[in-house]
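Cast an eye over this sequence plus tokens and walk me through the fold:

***
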Amino acid sequence: MYNMQPTLVILAAGMASRYGSMKQIEAFGPGGETIMEYSIFDAIRSGFSKVVFIIREEFSGAFKAQFEPRLKSKIEIDYVYQHLRNFVGNRTIPAERVKPWGTAHALLCCKGKVNEPFAIINADDFYGKEAFEKAAAFLQTACNEKTYAIMGYELSKTLSGNGSVSRGVCAVNEAHELVQIKERIKIYREASSGKIVFEEEDGKHTLPDPTPVSMNFFGFHPNIIALAEKLFGEFLDKHIQNIKSEFFIPLVADEFVKRHLGVVKVLPTSAQWFGITYKEDAPDVKKSIETLVQSGAYPEYLWK
């Protein structure tokens, strides 16, 4: 059990290939706030004391210039840089490989920087205040070497109206523990039937609206980093020649369960997720934030 204040780790090193710009620093709030600033605001009021940004080093100047003036008096800040060669050892990386190794590799890059229970999230997803309150409570009272957590969102509240999405679909037991997490791609609501479907090579499959899914919001003990390092070596031995292969956090959580190393609690939230998968999502995100501000859920200017 930990009484120390937890840390928030934010994944902000992605190339934003589908979106077409550096969406992590795009303004969506009325005061020019980014999506992740709402997450940081929620984290601070839920009891988090430090934020660690995982970014690409070439973006660090612009990133720090934008965020440090707003945040430095509000929360402790640190940075981790995700480099392609980090933790690769003496293996040869294909010359054509330019894309980072994925979110679990980003997590691994926190080795030595994050030594306390922490939550990890995407920079470009809006998670909601309730999720941070539940995560903070878990990290301070229930997190340990054998107990992790994942926020479980209702699938129907995580879709985009502008195209299909990929989600980590969670199988959960009666104790609200993760049995398996499986990445499903091309998930969308079918216009003809009104049902949520995902596509695979053998055709379409339906998923119930309340199906719990991962939005990459996890609560971890710092020992996850050692497991990620071990699994990354295994991953590279199998997939290093595939220039599109990625090492994802849900793979690490899934292996933690499969190898009987501990349990991953699925913490349910009824929050409405929103985020930027496609450029066309941006107006909807701005409108959603505006509605929350008007309702009093957030101040008009977060940091004033």
About this structure: The mean pLDDT is 91. DSSP finds seven helices and 13 strands in the chain.
